Each structure stands twice: as structure tokens, then as C-alpha cells.
Amino acid sequence: MRELEDRIRQDGIVREGNVLKVDNFLNHQCDVGLYDRMGAEWARLFAGQRVDKILTIESSGIGIACVAARHFGDVPVVFARKTESKNLDGDQYRTQIKSYTKKRIYEVIVAKRFLVPGEHVLVIDDFLAMGCAMDGLLQICEGAGVIVEGIGIAVEKGFQPGGASLREQGYRVESLARVSSMDARTGEIEFA
């Protein structure tokens, strides 16, 4: 998606350790108009696929997934929680994921009543790098018996193994911006 790539070039900041900061428009301050156009693009890319629900993980994926859901007939959005809460009740799917940027392990939780066996799910998230968060979401989907129609990613770091691994497993991954390289010294970002 050219608009997203241009915005990353314009406003993205490359940090040491393969970190790409896009917090002024994607995952801290939210450009809702851009989110809407991203949702429209995913709807175009996944046209003809049945989508009963969208699944994401807190926190950065929630806004993007909610806006995208409008383009899929206002389907519900379910998000995996990274923290225990008194409001979480009933049976739950749980798995652990390692956060690449935060360098810690999270237990992620989805109440079983929100993922019904046989439902068709589109998984959406803001970033895909190593694939740890996505692997956790897919474990939850497998445990729930839902059908994963595809994975929508805003920004994929194509030089890291997450996307290739998912594609090798047979998942359809549609990334709107696929970074092929970035340089913290110069700030340059290249796209595939």
C-alpha cells in the first residue's frame, strides 16, 4: 500500500536493533483515516473470503482491527489480552508469546465464548517481525477450532523470519507495507 509506505518513509524512525518507530500515526497516536484506508485494502485483498470475526492482540492491533471490521460488514473484533483481569471469567484459551520489542514473555488470553468452533477468522495486527505474537494467536485459533481465512499485517519486516514462516505453514499473509531493509545510522527504509 503505497500510502502506508510513504507515511513510514516520512514519519518512521529507525532505531538500533531493527526497531521501527511509527508511534505518531500507527500504534500510539492513531491516524484513523489511514486505518480506514488500510481496512478497505484488506477488504479488497480478502474479497470473497468469509470473515465472521477479526482477531488481534492488545494493544496496538485493536484500533486497526476495529476500523478494518467496518469493511467486513461490521464483524466483531476479539482481542487477546496480555494481562489477567477480574473481568475475565469462564473458560479461556491461553498461550505464551515473547515480545520482540519489550523482551518479555506474556501470557495471552481469549475467553472461549468469543471464538466458536467453525467460525471463519481474519487475524490482523500492526507488526510482523519474528512472528511470536502471531504464532500465539494461531495456537489460540487452533485450540478454538476456528478457520483462519488469512492474516492482515500493517507493517511486515520482511528481513525477519515471521512472514516467511507463516507462509511456509500455508497461511495467507497480506502485509500492506513490507520492509526489506532499514538502516538506523541513515534512517533509510526500503520496501519489497
Automatic annotation (TrEMBL):
EC code(s) of this entry: 2.4.2.22
Residues of the Phosphoribosyltransferase domain: 47-147
Name listed for the protein in its UniProt record: Xanthine phosphoribosyltransferase
Residues reported in the UniProt entry to bind 5-phospho-alpha-D-ribose 1-diphosphate: A129, M130, G131, C132, A133
Molecular function terms, GO-annotated: xanthine phosphoribosyltransferase activity
Organism: Thermophilibacter immobilis
GO biological process, one term: XMP salvage
Family to which the UniProt record says this protein belongs: Belongs to the purine/pyrimidine phosphoribosyltransferase family. Xpt subfamily.
Quaternary state and interactors: Homodimer.
Gene name of this polypeptide: xpt
Key words, A-Z: Cytoplasm, Glycosyltransferase, Purine salvage, Transferase
